[in-house]
């Protein structure tokens, strides 16, 4: 996945906004809260960062092509960075981006989700 594909995918979720910040990173938000970041891998080019469940964080932290996200994970947050961007893990990335959106949207109040027209199951 490249940044254009990443931006197209993230932009398809309801009530999202996109900003460029933190050194040219593509930052996607729902209700003003970050759910995905394209950028930030200074060592080897493209990288995609997303929020995960505790279980997925533990699993992905030891999986090839992933690492605990710099800055976020060091502060105890369950965020992972996918650094393998050759396309081999694109389907997985799409799943984890959807899950990150869901987790962040669930963190919004019911009132806020209603105002934004976001309907999330569990």
TrEMBL record:
Name of the protein: MmcQ/YjbR family DNA-binding protein
InterPro entries: YjbR (IPR007351), YjbR-like_sf (IPR038056), YjbR/MT2646/Rv2570-like (IPR058532)
SUPFAM superfamilies referenced in this protein's UniProt entry, alphabetically: YjbR-like
Organism whose genome encodes this protein: Vibrio mediterranei
